[in-house]
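Collaborator request, handled under Task 6.
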Amino acid sequence: MAAFFCYIVECADGTYYTGWTTNPERRTRQHNLGRGARYTRQHGPVRLVYVESLPDRSQAMRREHEIKALKRPQKQRLIQSATSDLP
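Structure tokens returned to the collaborator:
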């Protein structure tokens, strides 16, 4: 059974890009190689700053939409809350 993830990458210019994938590390490499979204090709390189695991593609896509609707300070709080949970 495949796992699905919603992720945020920070671009070189400090902006954020949100997407969904089955492999966040691979997807980040794709963005950095210019094979990701048009936005990250224009604003790269990127670094992975947030990953959220979800049970299926539908929920990952829904969560991506929710995160994209957040304002920048809300995204920063989301990223910070996930980072502070790390050991």
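The cover message to the collaborator said: "Helices lie at 24-32, 38-43, 57-68, 72-84. The two ends are 28 Å apart (CA to CA). Please let us know whether this matches your experimental observations."
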